[in-house]
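Per reviewer request, we include the raw input and output of the structure prediction for the construct analysed in the revised manuscript.
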Amino acid sequence: MDPKRKIVIIGGGIAGLSAAVYALRCGYAVELLESNSQAGGLAMSWERGGYTFETCLHWLVGSRPGADFHDHWQELLDIDKLTFINPEIFVRIERERGDDGLTIYTNVDRLEMALLKRAPQDSAAIREYTDAVRSLSRFRIPDPSEGLAENWWPLLQDLPHLPLLRRLGRMSSREYGRRFSDPLLRSFFSSGDVGRMSAIAMVLSLAWMHAGNAGYCLGGSQALIRGIETTIHRLGGTVRFGAKVEKILVESDGAVGVELANGERVFADWVISAADGHATLFEMLGGRYMTEALRERYATRPLFASYVQVSLGVAMDLHDQPPMLSLLLEEPLVVDPGTGQDTIAFRFFHFDPTFAPAGKTAVTCMLPTRNHQFWAELRAGDPPQYHAEKHRVAETVLAILERRIPGLRGAVEAMDVSTPATVLRHTRNWQGAMEGWLVEPGDQWRPLRQTLPGLERFMMVGQWVAPGGGLPSGPMTARPAVKAICRADHVPFTPHAEPVPELVGV
């Protein structure tokens, strides 16, 4: 019997793990190389002082059995063993000092009633928005790994939604929000990167929540990651931690393996990069096999911002707070030179009992910034000042929250501050971005090309080939990549296959 074909995968984030499962199910030997000490990449949580802090998962598209994308997650892990909750409230928006507030409910009927009661003058715009949410709650995402023959029924069902998607795709969320006169409702559509993105993103997010297909899984992103890791080990795959890839080895314009930072070479029949796109193209491949369009994209196209995250372990039961609170500040919060935030958002993880001891709450505050270089240079060149800046931001955030929840400061048992330098150090994600490409009005949501011209036996997967990013970009790009590899090798693509136990002689 011929030895198994081998695939080496660079990066143990959601995309790399997904690619490993699909390759193993199709009979390939798999060696996954991850530079950190645990899998997950940007899908990460960590412990401090008895609390767990999350930096990724807000909701997971595909959480409801039988709904869009659920079957893809089932191919990767036993997703039905995870516990999902669907919060009634998406976000509560308030002014920093004042009693005025707006609650965005996940149920669109309840949301419509609340908005009409609050802003009857915006009734036409409100009904147009809630009707759009209802309509897109029935929208099916075409499977990029399948052709027209497999997608014809979902595409036929989607035809009535195409005019709406076309209209939303031509405007930003901030532009969409201008149709409302109510200032808090307008702010819902306009803050941060959300305001820059195509309006499709904000409408689809609420549509998935309304359909009950965007739940939060208890244990956060690492619960999902551990489930996929379990599948990889059960299928016989190898995951190596502390294995940093420096170079993709190429012979006769074909990828033949990788070279690690310690000089070790790992050879394979195929190489899949699930690592940072910029590092893959410009460092591991040395800028070869690039098109002008690809160079221009990395030079000019906008990314999601990076972020400073302040995480607090609070010895208080904060169930009376909404899952997410957005405060409109009276004075901008200075994150770093050139970055001021006039809105600040807190997540109260009282809905996840795995994140804090009973009667206590994990709280996080994410502050977007595009000044990743400031934090990276400060950490490398002036560590005391770096820690002083982290402390300053944390104290500012704590003071804002203390004004809303008196006595909170004295109940803080754990505090952690991560910065763009932290993101760069742990994930190498280009410019410390929290995801990949930001999808602005007029941009395409469909995945980019996963191969490079002139380079054989190489594929890219993950957020750098899936504009918009998010956890689903992992399987959405890994599935078609492995399917293409199988087609090239004349191997059946069997995404549901389980390993056949070896027969034991008697």
